[in-house]
Write a structure and sequence with these properties.
The protein has 3 domains: 2-133, Ribonuclease H-like superfamily/Ribonuclease H (Nucleotidyltransferase, domain 5); 140-272, Orthogonal Bundle (Helix Hairpins), CATH 1.10.287; 290-399, no CATH class. It contains 18 helices and 9 strands. It has helices spanning 45-58, 73-79, 92-102, 110-123, 136-169, 173-176, 183-191, 195-200, 203-212, 218-230, 238-275, 279-283, 289-300, 310-317, 340-353, 358-369, 374-395, 401-423; strands at 2-3, 13-18, 23-30, 37-42, 64-69, 85-90, 130-131, 322-326, 329-333. A 5-stranded mixed beta sheet has the order 4-3-2-5-6. It has a two-stranded antiparallel sheet with strand order 1-7. Helix 5 (136-169) packs across helix 13 (289-300) and helix 15 crosses helix 17. The longest helix is centred in the middle third of the chain and has 38 residues, at 238-275.
């Protein structure tokens, strides 16, 4: 979280910290000394804590600015609980561009990057904002929604591979197992990875399997049993069948525990979301639900000084487009330099809102009639939702669709009145 420091804050020292797997490179300059100090820190919690204690003792607990790359999560987590360290997470692209401006040859090494990180916050302090940690509940929520997305990506990867393998030798299974990302599919393919193995099973055993997995439709089970009896293999080549069935088992093996972990994470996420002070605000948005509600909350956090205007969040999230203008040439394009997960959160919410919000559904339909592309419409809709979400969050008031529609009607009426006065 970014947070402006009071103007009277004076740093006792400036530190650039370049992270690595085995050791960290430190570049330090005390405020009262022209000397640049370099140091190597081992990648061990004890070494890092010893270094922090030495800084505290040397500078008597006065503020020390520490610049580090934004993507270095573990190091950020280790330092964020230290009261006198003022952290400045630097976007890796910012560091890369600064390095390129000073070293056009493309040369790069860790000690140099540590120096550049320190120089950035020393020379351009007013352009960077210090990082302020969220409260523990919000921080845990933010981490869980990010981990959930990673688990979902892994689930998609495994089910896509399963689809490819099954189509190569046992395509009928795609109709009989149900959804591939289900316990039923995992158990089915573990028990009967080939058509021959399935056809050897008795109808009673197959019927019992489906009922144990909460499939109680007698007509559906009977239809599947008839299909299984009449099915013919796509190939009878034992080399193909054995090789691909082994690959199916190798994908099903990690899929089931992943589904269990995802279910446990969802339960924990729902509990945290329900207990959060801002729950009622984010649960009030149409289609927020148990997944998008926590994601929207984690996107804004709890520090209400971070974003003062909607444009700040629209630009930071990458939802707002970028305008490049030179002379008579003007190009409006998508903003690529942004936190992608944050942009995905708002765009995916905009898509979901079309099914629950009257004005969002109407907005999408109007833009579609103008032949605007699907993703461009969603970004424009997300742009509008950010204004609404930010206002509700800042005012600590839940969203009420009827009130917003009334405001839209009022604005529309006032606009028409202004036009009539001008033309009269």
């Amino acid at each position: 979280m970014n947070h402006p420091l009071p103007p009277q804050t004076e740093m006792a020292a400036w530190v650039g910290l370049d992270w690595a797997d085995q050791q960290h490179v430190v570049s330090l300059q005390a405020a009262d000394s022209p000397r640049i100090e370099s140091q190597l820190l081992r990648q061990k919690p004890e070494a890092l804590q010893e270094w922090i204690n030495s800084l505290r003792e040397r500078f008597s607990g006065r503020p020390v600015a520490v610049a580090l790359e934004q993507s270095r999560g573990p190091l950020l987590y280790a330092l964020m609980s230290t009261d006198f360290l003022i952290l400045y997470p630097i976007n890796p692209k910012t560091l890369a561009k600064y390095r390129e401006s000073l070293y056009p040859s493309g040369a790069k090494d860790d000690p140099r990057d540590a120096d550049l990180l320190r120089e950035l916050i020393q020379r351009f302090a007013s352009r960077f904002r210090a990082w302020k940690p969220e409260d523990p509940a919000t921080r845990q929520l933010q981490l869980l929604v990010q981990h959930r997305r990673k688990l979902c990506h892994e689930k998609t990867r495994l089910t896509n591979q399963l689809t490819i393998y099954l189509k190569s030798y046992f395509p009928q299974a795609l109709e009989w197992v149900g959804e591939l990302d289900s316990y039923q599919a995992c158990d089915f393919l573990q028990r009967w990875p080939t058509l021959s193995a399935l056809q050897k099973a008795t109808p009673g055993r197959i019927r019992k399997f489906y009922r144990l997995h909460h499939c109680h439709s007698t007509s559906l089970i009977d239809s599947r049993l008839a299909q299984i009896r009449q099915a013919r293999p796509l190939t009878e080549d034992p080399a193909v069948v054995e090789a691909f069935s082994l690959m199916v088992k190798s994908r099903v093996g990690p899929l089931r525990p992943l589904l269990e972990s995802l279910a446990e994470l969802d339960r924990r996420l729902q509990k945290l979301f329900d207990q959060h002070p801002d729950h009622d605000i984010f649960a009030s948005f149409p289609a927020a639900g148990p997944v998008l509600g926590p994601r929207l909350l984690s996107a804004l956090g709890s520090d209400r000084t971070r974003f003062t205007q909607a444009s700040e969040l629209q630009n930071f999230s990458g939802v707002a487009p970028v305008t490049k203008q030179s002379g008579r040439t003007r190009i409006v394009s998508m903003r690529w330099a942004c936190p992608r997960f944050l942009r995905q959160t708002f765009v995916e919410y905009a898509a979901a809102s079309c099914g629950k919000s009257e004005w969002a559904r109407t907005f999408y339909a109007l833009k579609a009639q103008q032949r605007m592309k699907h993703h461009a419409i969603l970004r424009e809709l997300a742009f509008k939702w950010i204004r609404i979400i930010l206002r509700c969050w800042q005012n600590r008031t839940p969203y009420v669709e009827a009130q917003y529609l009334a405001q839209l009607q009022k604005r529309k009426f006032q606009g028409r009145g202004a036009v009539l006065r001008m033309t009269g």
